[in-house]
Amino acid sequence: MVNRIAKLADAMPADFEAALIKTEPNRFYFLDLDAGDAGTVLVLKDKAYFIIDSRYIEIARREVQTAEVILEKNALSQVAELLKKHNVKRLNVENDITLKYFGELKKELPGVELISDASLSQTVAALREIKDEDELARMREAQRITDECFTYICGQIRPGMREIDICLMMETYMRTHGATGLAFPTILVSGPNTSLPHGEPGERELCDGDFITMDYGAKVRGYCTDMTRTVALGHVTPEMEEVYNTVLKAQLAACNAAKAGMDCKAIDEIARKVIRDAGFGDNFGHGLGHSVGIEIHEEPRFSPTAKATAQKGQMMTIEPGVYLPGKFGVRIEDTVVMTEAGCEILGKSNKNLIIL
Ligand SMILES: [Mn+2]
Predict the structure, then answer these.
(1) Mean pLDDT, rounded, for 69-87
(2) Is residue 350 assigned to a domain?
(3) Last residue of a domain, which of 81, 101, 129?
(4) What is the pLDDT of residue 3?
(5) N or C: which end of the chain has fewer CB within 10 A?
(6) Distance between CA 254 and CA 234 in Å, rounded?
(7) Neighbours of ion ligand 1 (CB under 5 A)
(8) Residue 1, pLDDT above cutoff 70
(9) Measured in angstroms, how far is the CA atom of residue 210 from the centroid of ligand 1?
């Protein structure tokens, strides 16, 4: 495995002494070990420690190779001892720890300067943005399962089934076909509920003439994928077809144009223009996409206010939508990997209008 801890020390400013990694996704990124919300990682210039309680100590000792694993007794006094031992006077902390934890650090680490600006969090975020081969392989596997699940569920959906039942079938399929988890709780909405971009699946029974929007993804060894498909049941009205084809055109335009080196804002605008030109500009309220990895929503974003430039190796979603309140909505989403030549769509699921 790539030593991500060594990469962190190299990426920090020259006066870097030590960093405390406490947030869950960052700890996972550095250790490649899922210990839930437990454990503390202390990164020094040329050494790292992982202080972890007895629930995870056996697996940590077996799996973690890039940090010395220490059984947790009182994590903060252990950190204090280690800082003293290594003569560390300045400690970078993530800027999204809780105020409560920050207060405890101040109390337990007297004489240590806590650096709580954004420098550590931003440095870690920048490392996490660019996926390495191993991360990419996990996301490809997650997408393969996500695609398979789409084919499976399209063969199962019938009028009269409830949203929550289909949802459960999808989640069961993914968990029994290689997913180590779900990227997020599956969104499955039907009929008028499809105008809610992140509606919750409920007891509504599917009927002829519904759109069904499925926004979901598998997780494989810590890495998420994200896909949305909207399918129809029985038949569509001309208005439904028009909206569907508009969203599809916008999605394809963005997928065809996006490449590393472009402004994220410009990529958003490509899809947004298609939707605006078709007269649905006011019905596409969210950004075009987001980065994805250990977390389902990471930086950067494709949005009208984005400041970043797309970079090679970023995993992004491209997910335009049009939502007509009280009527229906359509969203089509793929996860893509940014390259200098363009963007490669990770999945293979059909995007043309499917009428089941
Ligand atoms: Mn998404």
Answers:
(1) 97
(2) no
(3) 129
(4) 86
(5) N
(6) 29
(7) 226, 317
(8) no
(9) 22
Mean pLDDT of 193-206: 96
Identify the CATH number of the domain in which residue 63 sits: 3.40.350.10
Q: Is 353 inside any structural domain?
A: no
316 CA distance to ligand 1 middle (Å): 9
Would you say 248 and 352 are in contact if contact means Cβ atoms under 8 Å apart? yes
Residue 342 · residue 354 · CB < 8 Å: no
In DSSP notation, 158-227 reads -TT-BHHHHHHHHHHHHHTTT-SEESSPPEEEEGGGGGSTTPPP-SPBP-TT-EEEEEE-EEETTEE--E
Name the residue range of residue 214's domain: 133-345
Q: How far is the CA of 91 from the centre of ligand 1 (A)?
A: 35
CA of 16 from ligand 1 middle (Å) equals 35
In a domain? residue 18: yes
Q: Kindly state whether residues 106 and 139 are assigned to the same domain.
A: no
Q: Are 290 and 184 in contact (CB under 8 A)?
A: no
Q: What is the mean pLDDT of the chain?
A: 97
CA distance linking residue 93 with residue 83, whole number of Å: 14
Distance in Å, CA 224 to ligand 1 centroid: 10
pLDDT tens-digit readout, 119-169: 999 999 999 999 999 999 999 999 999 999 999 999 999 999 999 999 999
Closest CA to 52 of 65, 87, 37: 37
Q: What are phi and psi of 193, to 5 degrees?
A: -65, -15
Q: Does the model's pTM come out above 0.90?
A: yes
* pLDDT for res 2: 64
- 212 with 69, same domain: the answer is no
Cis peptide bond upstream of 25, omega within 30 = no
